[in-house]
Specification:
The protein is α/β, with parallel strands linked by helices. It has helices at about 10-15, 30-45, 50-60, 60-75, 140-155, 200-205, 215-225, 280-285, 285-300, 300-310, 315-325, 330-350, 360-365, 370-380, 385, 400-415, 415-420, 445-450, and strands at about 80-85, 95, 105-110, 115-120, 125-130, 165-170, 210-215, 235-240, 245-250, 255, 270, 275-280, 355-360, 390-395. It has 3 domains: about 5-15 and about 100-215 and about 400-440, Nucleotidyltransferase, domain 5; about 20-95, Orthogonal Bundle (Arc Repressor Mutant, subunit A); about 230-395, ATPase, nucleotide binding domain (Nucleotidyltransferase, domain 5, 2-Layer Sandwich). The protein is built from 18 helices and 14 strands. The strands form 4 sheets. Strands 5-4-3-6-7 form a 5-stranded mixed β-sheet, sandwiched between helices. Strands 10-9-8-13-14 form a 5-stranded mixed β-sheet, with helices on both faces.
Amino acid sequence: MSDSTTQSHAQISKENPNHVPTLKRSRVSSLAITSLVDVLEMVRLGTAKTRQELEQKGNLGRATVADRLNKLSELGLIDESVSGQAIRGRAPKLVRFSQDRAVLAVITLDQTAIGVGLANLSGALITEHHETIDLKEAPEQTIKRLIALIAWILDRQPSSPDLWGISVSVPDSIPNDSAVPFLMKTPDFLHGWGESLLVEKLIEEYCVPVWITSSVETMTMGEQHSGQGIETRSMLFIKIGKRIGAGLVIDGQLYSGGAGAVGLIGELPINSDGKTGSLNSLAGSENILREGLAAAQSGRSPSLSAILQRDGEVTVNDVCQAAQISDPACSAILMNSGRLIGGVIAMLTNMLNPQLIVLAGIPAQTNDILLAAVREAVYGASHPLVTRDLKIVRSNMSTSAALLGAATVGVEALFAPMMLRNWLLEGSPSRHPELLGVNKTENDTDEKIWA
């Protein structure tokens, strides 16, 4: 892909003649803005589907509803082209949210791979692309690749959609500040990424809001909205990898804690066969790989020995696949990890009483051994009332889970009432007051950010 592909989409957006006209703030009072936001929220969430329902549920007059819908129609955010079912007399027009008005770019960063996709304004994935990387390499090259991929994936869309935000999922906890509608500065995460200017470069290139969320939280939200957790009010999501983390859904809402660092269960100290360490070090994928390599080198695992001789290396997936075909050494490795992880999950289960526990990650999704060990540990160490209706399952979602969760994060943040009040009348999130002045002119260069 050539560098020309990554030319500033902020500039392209500014020159797009198809943008919806701006509604001047002087024409709309503060009260009117509030009701405009409320009407859009009811339409977007489907709690009101006709003008009459908007009047009733919003406690608004007919003229007010008509005016607000007219403004939202001017902004391209609602559609009334379809009629509903006639109950008495004339069929009412359905008020529908225009979910294809614009798109969000969604990104996942993992230790060995990146994913980039587009989602509509309802959080549904339109397209996605994944490729391998090494996150330990210099962040600058990864960021340039991400920007190039966003440009490429946007250019592939037949309708040339407006980009309204970028939501990023990263394998680390991110400080949580509910008072900040979106990021203007890159937070500290992972080694070397706090100074990478990831957020600043994305904003300079695209002039849209940027959000960054931990991968455990985005995967939890992806599972809740599109996976095993659909219609579940209380759920524990456990991601098993180099780090073991937990996502928590309470009363249908993701719980992020006071600082955004909820669910760091991999840091908990445990004891196994006289060894004391963290759950990460004694049950995570690095330990699985280390013990699998030892089993291959010693000959205790004929399957892994053959793989090591053939490929010169052994992977976590190799260990899990060998366990699935009843390799005794590999089965024992995964059973031990499952038992240790299950012991920690049992404590959480007794305290939180979730309806559902979902396990994700290669060690959990590629074999039945670890899942069975976790179930045995949790059911054996939990109160009968807690486990009476409890389901413990593995995720059926692939690499799309984090992208779907990132899309949900972006949509919820973009249409949060306080956020909406600052961009709705302007017609685009790019005109949010915090982003004013970010748009590049034709003579601007990348020297400042990319130096």
